[in-house]
Amino acid sequence: MADTIQQQLDAIEQDALAQVEQAGDAALLEAVRVRFLGKKGELTAILRGFGALSADERPAAGKRVNATKQRVHDAIARREASVAEAVRAARLSGHQLDVTLPSFGSPAGHIHPLAAMTREICDTLGALGFSIADGPEIEDDYHNFEALNIPPEHPARDMQDTFFIEDGLLLRTHTSPVQIRVMQEVQPPLMIIAPGAVYRIDDDNTHSPMFHQVEGLMVDEGINFAHLKYVLTTFLRETFGPDSPVRFRPSYFPFTEPSAEVDIGCVICGGKGRSETGNCRVCKGTGWLEILGAGMVDPAVFEHVGYDSERYSGFAFGVGVERIAMLKYGISDIRLFFANDQRFLEQF
Ligand code: PHE
User: Fold this and answer.
1) Closest Cα to atom 5 of ligand 1
2) Distance 284 CA to ligand 1 centre (A)
């Protein structure tokens, strides 16, 4: 009888080992395990045949069953390991990594278009002999208005334009207060430019509540309007091209007399004033674009800083950095400069 059990065991073991070899994944292996080693498995079922054995035969038969179970168990464990290894190998060969490839590196930042435009303006004017001066963005009424000959009732002080802070402090509405600060410090001759942020209550596609100007000031004996014209014409032709038309129009600023607004020929329609569909939208049909304000320093300003206006004369100008950049690069919305959209910034 013991022999019959041994034969059955051998047959089951052979069958089990063959099935283990054929099982190609973890789920199939688990099915094999349940079938042979589970509570209702074939090797468990064989114990039921023990009733036919004599008491002497049972311990030896039990050992054999256990030994067979152990071998099947071991075979499943080995197969599991090799199936897992095969899965891993397949995954690795699907995603081959060449660790010797050069890395992508981290993207390098670059200069903001307005900072680049400011540098370009300062480089051009620097080459003409101007050096850089600086002043605070939080200004007092005296430097921003009064010393620039803007009396208290002047419309430029209107709440609509100026961000007032408190106690006579405000955000500077232009870079012209730097003129006053420089003249309070040094005696002529002087040639300075002052780049920086300025603030006005204004917000649409050509106006931003914060924008940038470059101020210019030259003071010496014998400075006249021809010096102003030469410097600004040279600056504009360096910036917009040597053939760019430049025109000076009479204008008014409280701190310059006479004053001028300076135009360049429209860079969009080439000065014709028309596009294919009608009037040029950028110059509104005039063929000209206003680009900066300028003039001879008003003697009243010299009085405020203690310069002798009989001896000295000078000219001043103010350029809008965004305006120049927009015209030079054909940008129609000033807010693009401040939205920090990489797709915009990366074009410069
Ligand atoms: N400060 C003037 C403005 O912001 C520009 C200007 C500067 C005009 C210097 C004349 C002289 O509009």
Assistant:
1) 318
2) 23
Superfamily of domain 113-345: Bira Bifunctional Protein; Domain 2 (3.30.930.10)
Nearest residue to 121 (alpha-carbon basis) of 198, 216, 200, 210: 216
Q: Is the pLDDT of residue 1 over 60?
A: no
Domain boundaries, the chain: 2-93, 113-345
Q: What is the mean pLDDT of residues 208-230?
A: 98
Would you tell me the crossing angle of helices 26-37 and 57-94 to the nearest 10 degrees? 170
Considering the entire predicted model, what is its pTM?
0.71
Which tokens hold the place of 90? 């397949």
Q: If you compute the radius of gyration of the chain from its CA atoms, what whole number of angstroms results? A: 44
Q: How far apart are CA 196 and CA 248, in angstroms?
A: 25
Ligand 1 centroid to residue 317 C-alpha, Å: 6
Ligand 1 environment, Cβ below 6 A: 174, 176, 253, 256, 293-295, 316-318
Nearest ligand 1 atom, CA 175: 1
Long-range contacts of 337-342 (CB under 8 A, 24+ apart): 337/112, 337/113, 337/114, 337/208, 338/208, 338/210
Instruction: Give the pLDDT band (50/70/90) at residue 107.
Output: confident
